[in-house]
Amino acid sequence: MKTFLFCMLGLSIAACTPKKASNNQDELAMLVGTYTNGTSKGIYTFRFNQETGMATPLDSIELANPSYLTPSEDGKLVYAVSEMNDSTASLNTLSFDKETGSMRLLNTELTLGGDPCYVATNGSKVVTANYSGGNMSVFSLRKDGTATPIDTLFEGTATGPDTIRQNTPHIHCAVFSPDGKYIFATDFSSDRILRFVLHPNAATPHPSMETTDIEADSGPRHLTFSPDGKYAYLITELSGKVIAFSYDDGRLNQIQTITADTLAARGSADIHLSPDGKYLYASNRLKGDGIAIFSVNPQNGNLAKVGYQQTGIHPRNFNITPNGKFLLVACRDSNIIQVFQRDEHTGLLSDIHRDIILDKPVCIQFTNSVNNP
To answer: Which domains does the chain have, with CATH numbers?
Structure first.
């Protein structure tokens, strides 16, 4: 059986007891979701120093296939999917101690859609994107932050030309708009983005006639907004492109398309902007696994490709530290999390060779500094 290690320190998680974080503004609490069909057992927590790039194992909790997770705004709760392709597919609410890294399962609610692969919250609602279920689940939150049973389901469709990848509906991500008025979901198999309206006094979001169509055979996967909320960027899995939009009160207007996957591998995955909004990163899998790097024009939101960083195998998800100094890549099939240092002036990445060894890591999230609320 493979031992869970942090390779630079040679620490076994089995030998670790939860540790108190040092009183350091640079210490983050880091959560990692995994696939559990190997030796990983669920969610793992670390202390990560965003000045030195050093990670220290803290704790773990058993949970089936927590392939995507997100912390609450205060970092005291974690919402994690169990990506199962059967009736056990679910959303889990966990309490989280940012100092010790310990977690406790509070409740579990069924998503009523198979393979939930994305979760987001605005503090009053939680939504999951259910890949094989082809739908989006909406949950309300109780006063204690736990999810109630599902409020409603919104269904995707399948009209795309790929008879294998788009033959059934797939919803791949669902995000809250920065203005708090809408939810946007990627309708992978119909090559469009769906918009749902959030009404303050309504129990659930309302479907809207507003959809954003993109080029056929694109396979929209993940969507992210610029820090100032003026632009949105979409990574398309099948066509391997980044599509830039201007954003204004619920409307996405396409302004640019640029290629992230030059090998046509049809496996582009994740997309993130640096915290200052000056650079955009997009991951590619299946061929030439790595991260495409783009500069962002602050005047019009347009992108220009500035580099490409090779990574381990199958970089499904990655994340950037809040100070922008490090980019961490979950390389699922290499069974490592790679730590890259970012050049804030060029946007380029340098491997600092402080890999975190973990079986099938697929999601990385940070909370606020562990010694701050």
So the answer is: 61-316+341-351 (2.130.10.10)
